[in-house]
Amino acid sequence: MEGMEAVAFQIISNVGTAKSLIMEALYEARDGRYDEAEEKLKDSRTYMLEGHHAHSGLIQQEASGQKVEFSLLLMHAEDQMMSAETVSDLVTEMIKMYREMRQNKNGGVSF
């Protein structure tokens, strides 16, 4: 595997791991384990960053005049990255909601 394919798989692998950790964080929060959830979100950001670094390398390559050939594999990698970012944003908000719901339930406050 060379060049573009290796970068695409690097993106897919890293953001796929990030997405899995993000979902694990949601399951932890659902069960009231917020510290574990936050740790998984933190770990997921490391993988997202690695995926972004690989992607940025392609952008810099093209910006410097070296043509980056479009491929279905690259499109899939970018789609996975965008999907993981969206899931991360949604899960972060859902974890906040789980916390608030648990606090309101335990504190007697209702919506």
From TrEMBL:
GO biological process assignments: phosphoenolpyruvate-dependent sugar phosphotransferase system
Catalytic residues (UniProt): H76
UniProt entry keywords in alphabetical sequence: Magnesium, Metal-binding, Phosphotransferase system, Sugar transport, Transferase, Transport
MF annotations from Gene Ontology: metal ion binding; transferase activity
One Pfam family hit: PTS_IIA
Matches recorded under CDD domains: PTS_IIA_lac (cd00215)
Free-text remark on how the cofactor is bound: Binds 1 Mg(2+) ion per trimer.
Residues involved in Mg(2+) binding: D79
InterPro entries reported in the protein's UniProt record: PTS_IIA_lac/cel, PTS_IIA_lac/cel_sf
Phosphohistidine found at: H76
Cofactor field: Mg(2+)
Name of this protein: PTS dihydroxyacetone transporter
Source organism of this protein record: Peribacillus muralis
